[in-house]
Amino acid sequence: MTQPIPAQPLWRVLRNHEGRYSLALFHHDIPAGWQQIGMPASKTDCLQRIAQDWTDMRPNNLKEIMA
């Protein structure tokens, strides 16, 4: 008898007011100061989203000062 494949957990991409990104399991509450970006997905998909979107690691306030 084959074993069932365990379901992959869903993750979500979070972003804070400084433009920093994070990854959180979908079943965890979103911490204060963070908002969900996009829809829950696999960890791999979420990491790809972060790599695509977060191309400048400087916080938003530093980007504004240096502009």
UniProtKB/TrEMBL annotation:
SUPFAM superfamilies: MbtH-like (SSF160582). GO terms for biological process: siderophore biosynthetic process. Pfam families: MbtH. GO terms for cellular component: cytosol. Residues 3-52 form the MbtH-like domain. This is MbtH family NRPS accessory protein. It comes from Paracoccus amoyensis.
